[in-house]
Design brief:
Distance between the termini: 82 Å
CATH architecture of the largest domain: 3-Layer(aba) Sandwich
Strand content: 15-25%
Number of domains: 2
CATH superfamily of the largest domain: Response regulator
Order of helices and strands: HEHEHEHEEHEHEHEHHEHEHEHE
Number of strands: 12
CATH class of the largest domain: Alpha Beta
Structural class: alpha/beta
Helix content: 40-55%
Oligomer: single chain
Number of helices: 12
Length: 340
């Protein structure tokens, strides 16, 4: 009896010693390693806020490429070294470099074992990040796509004002911008409007200069376009204020598939997914991986069901291109001074 009692006491003490360890393991925060392209902007903040609001313990490590692709291999190495629980990538360039294309993945160069969620990728299939939207086809990857279908954008633009000639300028060393032009060529044929395209000239370093924006916009203005459309462009997003001001000076209305050219520039209108909301959706995908333990390949590549129709009313006044009254019933109107 004494021996039996001794065993019970010892087992009880052993279990008691294990309890704090088990509790601390349960409370240990997930380590999410985020790689962003141009700082922790709205999508990044929306992602982080989701975890805070849902009281999911997380440690964030954020690495900013600063629009320099040369920094990305180092981030891949670091994410592997710290044994992150999840890697989050922002944008097409970052995602391609960190996760690799699905048909040319290299375990030495890319994240292939750590679960990963990508966001702010306009065309994941065209960029060869995933082969389809039902499944990434890759054991460790899921994500979100942020751009409204280009056909939807063009129909919405036609509801603002009928047009026959749509202009685009783009940076040829940005895959997302190249894919955007390619998609718009097909839509132009289908919808019966003319697409007028100008490439931004590249410098010796293979990148366009901000100084090239004005002469390129001037070329399009001379060609008599009705709207200047930007589907996806990190370069033009970075220089949104000078770009949209130059367009406004040439009496050109900028329409875009992303919000920042309108909300933080002088663009006229955008049919877009709010970046903050895209970040929240990506965080929900991440929660399903980390908390619900769903394999990433089993999670569909999702996008928001509703898109914002954003109008910069100050720009509309300057261009004398006021929206039809019926649009104002559901449009989000930005009344502030352009570029503010």
């Amino acid at each position: 009896m004494t021996n039996r009692l001794t065993k019970i006491v010892i087992c009880g003490l052993f279990a008691a010693l294990l309890l704090p360890t088990a509790a601390s393991a349960a409370d240990k925060p997930f380590h999410i390693f985020m790689v962003v392209w141009r700082g922790c902007e709205d999508a990044c903040k929306g992602f982080q806020t989701y975890f805070k609001e849902n009281k999911i313990p997380v440690k964030f490590t954020v690495r900013d490429a600063g629009r320099d692709k040369k920094t990305l291999p180092g981030f891949v190495t670091e994410a592997k070294a710290v044994k992150a629980d999840l890697v989050v990538t922002w944008g097409t360039s970052v995602t391609r470099a960190v996760l690799g294309p699905y048909d040319k993945t290299d375990p030495a160069k890319h994240i292939t074992k750590i679960p990963a969620v990508f966001m702010i990728v306009a065309d994941p299939i065209g960029a060869k990040i995933v082969p389809n939207y039902e499944s990434s086809g890759r054991d460790n990857i899921t994500g979100t796509r942020n751009r409204a279908p280009a056909t939807v954008q063009m129909k919405a633009l036609q509801s603002y004002r009928k047009f026959k000639r749509l202009g685009m300028i783009y940076n040829t060393n940005e895959l997302n911008a190249v894919l955007s032009v390619k998609a718009m060529r097909k839509i132009a044929k289908k919808m019966g409007f003319e697409l007028v395209v100008e490439e931004l000239p590249l410098e010796a370093n293979g990148k366009p200069s901000p100084d090239s924006i004005e002469p390129t916009v001037a070329k399009l203005a001379k060609r008599g376009i009705d709207f200047l459309y930007v589907g996806s462009s990190s370069f033009l997003s970075k220089y949104r204020k000078p770009f949209t001001k130059i367009a406004l000076d040439h009496k050109l209305a900028v329409t875009a598939g992303t919000e920042v050219l309108v909300t933080k520039g002088s663009g006229l209108l955008a049919i877009a997914s709010r970046y903050y909301n895209v970040g929240q959706l990506a965080a929900f995908q991440a929660k399903r991986v980390l908390v619900d333990k769903i394999p990433p390949s089993k999670i569909k590549i999702r996008r928001l069901r509703r898109f914002s129709y954003i109008i910069n009313m100050e720009t509309a006044r300057q261009l004398k291109m006021f929206p039809p009254l019926d649009l104002l019933r559901y449009a989000e109107v930005i009344n502030g001074k352009p570029g503010s």
